[in-house]
Amino acid sequence: MVAGNRTEKHGPLRWLITGGCGFLGTSLIKNLIDEGGHIIRVLDNLSTGTAKDLSTVCNFEMISDYSKLSNNGSVLQGCQLITNDIRDLDACKACSQNMDIIVHLAANTGVAPSVENPCLDMEVNVNGTVNMLEAARMNQVKRFIFASSGAPVGECSPPIHEELAPHPVSPYGASKLAGEGYCSAYHKTFGIMTVALRFGNVYGPGSGHKNSVVAKFIKRAIAGETLEIFGDGSQTRDFIYIDDLIQAIRLAENTANVGGEVFQIATNKETTVDEMTSLLVPELKAAGLSGIKVVHGDKRLGDVMRNYSDTSKAREKLGWTAVYSLETGLNKTVAWFIN
């Protein structure tokens, strides 16, 4: 039992994972492949992750024309990669046929890109999410997991929790808030079991394409470049290791009575960027990197100063807590990048 919510028992599922070639997607797919038996379909426009990234975790069939997809779910096997875009409703509908669950990871990610091009951010994160929800409705997909963020809440006195009134600071936060709203509406109106997971700052092995601070700093250190902290480094984040996040997705997949809910998925620990850097630099030096230089630059537009999460709701309703310390996670992440 999970804190009053029973865990649903079922066999292997048919998964549609949008953005499945990215960091989160390939990590989830590896978890499913290791478990065995699942059928996996990936919808990805390859704007960030690549087919090569997907090939590191599984063998797959690449399909460039979604009209070639069979309507007969019984013929599905293994893993398929459909190279298309979530802004194409017809592609979303075709890919969602005969699926048991959609994990919607595809997004225009990060504050900076949303500030540079708010309209593109809206097209991908709002229209794309509505397309996926509509595809789920039309194809009677039972469960829909939405990758959200703490960004919808905006500036507040942390810890962030699910009952705080949202006041987004960035276009990215606004677009993720819209996605949460549509998930709630599609649950209440159409009965889809939507679950929105507000991920903290995710890091870990496989994050080679990410531009968030941990991955960016490791890549810059390897390249012999300076590590630049925006502002004075006192801004705080809640850094969550990838394996903890995947476990949260798996619990959201099979926990009953959580339709329409939003959960903070982080570590419930506030860490400044300076503190994270002070832990990361020794790991980089221990891995053989030298001459690492850290500087402070201008504060970035749209950034919130304090951000960490109260994860008690996820603990109570999903039975989930993070288990990896930042020190352990950084050690494993640096090792992956170096090797």
Q: Mean of the pLDDT scores? A: 93
- The oligomerization state is single chain
As a whole number of angstroms, the C-alpha radius of gyration is: 19 Å
Number of E-state strands: 14
- Looking at the structure, what is the overall shape? globular
Helix content: 25-40%
Low-confidence stretches: none
CATH topology of one domain: Rossmann fold
Q: What is the CATH superfamily of one domain?
A: NAD(P)-binding Rossmann-like Domain
Topology record:
Blueprint: E1 14-18, H1 23-35, E2 39-44, H2 51-55, E3 61-63, E4 79-83, H3 89-96, E5 101-104, H4 111-116, H5 118-138, E6 143-149, H6 171-190, E7 193-199, E8 201-203, H7 213-222, E9 227-230, E10 236-237, E11 239-241, H8 242-254, E12 261-265, E13 271-272, H9 273-286, E14 294-297, H10 312-318, H11 326-338
Parallel strand pairs: 1-2, 1-5, 2-4, 3-4, 5-6, 6-7, 7-12, 8-11, 9-14
Antiparallel strand pairs: 10-13
Please describe what this structure looks like.
This protein is α/β, with parallel strands linked by helices and 339 residues long. It has a domain at 14-204 and 238-268: Rossmann fold (3-Layer(aba) Sandwich), CATH 3.40.50.720. It contains eleven helices and 14 strands. The chain has an eight-stranded parallel beta sheet with strand order 3-4-2-1-5-6-7-12, with helices on both faces. A two-stranded parallel ribbon has the order 8-11. Strands 9-14 form a two-stranded parallel ribbon. α5 runs parallel beside α6. The protein is globular, with a radius of gyration of 19 Å.
